[in-house]
Amino acid sequence: MPRDYRRSSQSQPSKRKQSRSCVWWLIVGIAVGVVATKILAPGQDAAEPATETAARESASPSRPKPSFKFEEILTQAEDDDDGKAPPLPPPAPRPQPPVQEKPATPEPAQARAVEPAPTPAPAAKPRRGSYVVQVGSFSRAADAERLKAQLAMLGVSTSVQAATLSNGRVTHRVRTGGYASRAEAKKVQALLKRHGKDSLAIPVK
Predict the structure, then answer these.
(1) Which parts of this chain are annotated as the region Disordered (predicted)?
(2) Contact, 165 vs 149, CB < 8 A?
């Protein structure tokens, strides 16, 4: 059977044209893809770290920031104080009453062994011609009474006589007697002298 060489020769050029056009479109597509990849690559690179950072922040649990407030600390301290009873203050020391010093009382002088003195005459007004023995004369009555008490411890009975002097002053005389004779008055003076007391024998006129 005879072949149709004319048709076959016409179909071969058309196939070549189609294959060439496909190759060109393939090259153009590859070029467009490369250009698009270069343009979109920086945006993707910049978006990826932001996406990763957002993903990390969303994945990590949110930690509350510590807040220190003076009111909360003060309220907590007051609550702690309310729960515990405040310590009792130490008792105030009681004031000690001032110690009153007792006045020193002079110890009584020990009575010395005294020779028996002659019995003194009563403290009545001495008679004329008798003698009195004056042991002391004081401007203060208290001093005269003190000497009178000391002489009583010696066994000598005395009296305090007030007299006004010529200058108007009052004197208090401590006297014992009267004694009938000067000798009796001298015995009393000797007794007083042994105890350190000076005296004076005065005749009664």
Answers:
(1) 1-20, 44-130
(2) no
Give 122-126's long-range contacts (Cβ < 8 A, gap of 24+): 123/157, 123/158, 123/159, 126/177, 126/178, 126/204
Give the Cα separation of 139 and 163 in Å (integer).
Answer: 10
Q: Tens of pLDDT along 48-76?
A: 555 555 556 555 555 655 555 556 665 66
Centre a 10 Å sphere on the Cβ of residue 177 and count the other Cβ atoms it contains: 23
Spatial contact of 177 and 130, defined as CB atoms under 8 Å apart: yes
Mean pLDDT computed over every residue of the chain: 71
Cβ atoms of residues 132 and 96 within 8 Å: no
Q: Which two tokens stand for residue 166?
A: 């010529």
Predicted TM-score of the model (pTM): 0.38
Tell me whether residue 181 is exposed, middle or buried, using C-beta atoms within 10 angstroms of its C-beta: 0 to 12, 13 to 18, 19 or more: exposed
For residues 133 and 159, the answer to whether their CB atoms sit within 8 Å is: no
CA 106/CA 109 separation, integer angstroms:
9
> 69-124, pLDDT tens digit by residue?
556 665 665 555 555 555 666 777 777 766 666 666 656 555 454 555 444 444 45
